[in-house]
Specification:
The complex is a heterodimer. Chain A is built from nine helices and no strands. Chain A is mostly helical. Chain A has one domain (8-214): MetI-like (MetI-like fold). In chain A, α2 packs antiparallel against α3 (49-63), α2 (12-44) packs across α5 and α8 packs antiparallel against α9 (186-214). The longest helix of chain A has 33 residues, at 12-44. Chain B has a single domain (6-219), classed as Orthogonal Bundle (MetI-like fold), CATH 1.10.3720.10. Chain B is 81% helix and 0% strand. Chain B has nine helices and no strands. Chain B has helices at 6-10, 12-46, 49-64, 67-82, 88-113, 117-125, 130-161, 172-182, 186-215. The chains are: A mainly alpha, B mainly alpha. Chains A and B meet through α3, α4, α7, α8 and α9 of A and α3, α4, α7, α8 and α9 of B.
């Protein structure tokens, strides 16, 4: 069997572009999903029944659906329901954000719930408003507790961006498979794809382990 | 918007067959991952020193590469090296197991190391052998602590089988795509698919939470 590894160097530019888009997708999704997750958690804990039920339903729905199905469905449903034409990239960001927001919502809810009730009561006793208490007392501590979980979610998200290749978003997986189809260099291109994901993902996985050790909560 | 579910109803046998394959692939993957991952996790904790480094490397590598990449590589690239062509179903089983076993191995390690050292020392002090200590003291307690995490792995497994649609395993996701492509009602087909996956996955996640509450007190030490 002859393998021609030079195909990777000849298509290096396209691979770099694909990698950049992969990173961009992950960054933009996380930038949407962190405020989204906080909003979902605050809705859930607001004490207003309608908000709490809406938030819980959203979280349970998207935690219990395969992401690839959400991506396909968004691809077909978004243009019809909104009447706007979505580019594959914006469809991908919508689908990824829905998924990651749901996970972040659950993460923040658990983080906020882990701050003891006494702290909120103490803040009220000092005359702080509900909003002040949430912003100055509960959230700063909760964020420290949720950081390790957010880091794991980030690594999952980084890998999950590969799934949007099914709706032709030109990120790393799609680009590699496109070059494979054009050059018939199957083993070379797929191995290059796996190697690039590995090079990017391995340090991240190690960093997450480190964050988990550093921020481990022991009571 | 007019919704027309006729293409879903007309192909219900075809879709039901896909659902069967989704469940079969999920169960097989889960079983293989538990066996392989359990072996890797225990070998990492108790195996010979020279074996640990490659195992840690394997586990961390699988944690850093997307499941889609493992699936596509196993199905398209692996046959070029080994000369053995796997059908999509078996390639999916191999690829999903290769990845999920790494997660199982991490759960096993976390469970085993969560049992305090004092217990091992106490067992040794009572004259128990290493094997006896692991089998009768550590593992029974560690297993209880691993249960909730194994439950999450089951739900991840079911969701990951949908990605096998990419290598044309004719499971539910793949057959939904086929039906969506033949008729002109993709929205209805994918809405039904969302309902089907949710109906399978929601009880699983609920059951995991319940098992966790029921077993939590047993894991204390």
């Amino acid at each position: 069997m002859n393998f021609d590894w030079s195909v990777i160097w000849r298509n290096a530019d396209a691979l770099v572009e694909g990698t950049e888009l992969t990173i961009l997708l992950a960054v933009v999704t996380m930038a949407i999903a962190i405020p989204g997750g906080i909003a979902l958690a605050l809705m859930r804990l607001s004490g207003v029944r309608v908000l709490a039920v809406t938030s819980a339903s959203f979280v349970e729905l998207f935690r219990n659906l395969p992401l690839i199905l959400v991506i396909y469905t968004a691809y077909y449903i978004l243009p019809v329901t909104t009447g706007l034409s979505f580019s594959p990239i914006s469809t991908a960001i919508v689908a990824l954000s829905l998924n990651v927001s749901a996970y972040n919502g659950e993460t923040f809810r658990a983080g906020i719930a882990s701050i003891r009730r006494g702290q909120t009561e103490a803040a009220y006793a000092l005359g702080m408003t509900r909003w002040q208490t949430t912003r100055d007392i509960v959230l700063p501590q909760a964020i420290r507790r949720v950081l390790p979980v957010l880091a794991s979610t980030w690594v999952s998200l980084f890998k999950d961006t590969s799934l949007v290749s099914v709706i032709s978003v030109g990120e790393l997986a799609y680009t590699s498979m496109r070059i494979r189809a054009q050059t018939y260099r199957v083993l070379e291109m797929l191995t290059a794809m796996a190697a690039i994901y590995w090079l990017l993902g391995y340090p991240q996985a190690k960093l997450v382990d480190w964050i988990n050790r550093k921020y481990a909560v022991s009571e | 918007m007019e919704l027309d579910y006729s293409s879903v109803f007309d192909s219900w046998r075809f879709l039901l067959g896909g659902l069967g394959l989704t469940l079969a692939l999920s169960v097989l993957t889960m079983l293989c991952s538990l066996v392989l991952g359990g072996a890797i996790g225990l070998a990492r904790c108790y195996g010979p020193q020279w074996l640990r480094l490659p195992l840690v490397f394997y586990i961390d590598s699988m944690r850093s590469v997307p499941v889609l990449v493992v699936l596509v590589w196993t199905y398209f690239a692996l046959p070029l090296i080994t000369g053995v062509t796997l059908s999509p179903f078996w390639a999916a089983l191999v690829a999903l197991t290769a990845q999920l076993a790494a997660y199982v191995a991490e759960i096993v390690r976390a469970g085993v190391t969560s049992i305090r050292v004092g217990q091992t020392r106490a067992a040794f002090a009572l004259g128990m052998s290493r094997t006896q200590t692991i089998r009768t003291i550590i593992l029974p307690q560690a297993l209880v602590r691993m249960m909730p995490a194994f439950g999450s792995i089951l739900s991840i497994t079911i969701k990951d089988t949908a990605i096998a649609a990419v290598i044309a395993v004719p499971e539910y996701m793949n057959r939904s795509q086929t039906v969506a492509g033949q008729g002109f009602h993709p929205i209805e087909v994918f809405t039904v698919a969302m309902a089907v996956y949710f109906i399978i996955l929601f009880p699983v996640t609920r059951a995991v939470d319940m098992v966790y509450v029921r077993l939590a007190h047993l894991g204390r030490s």
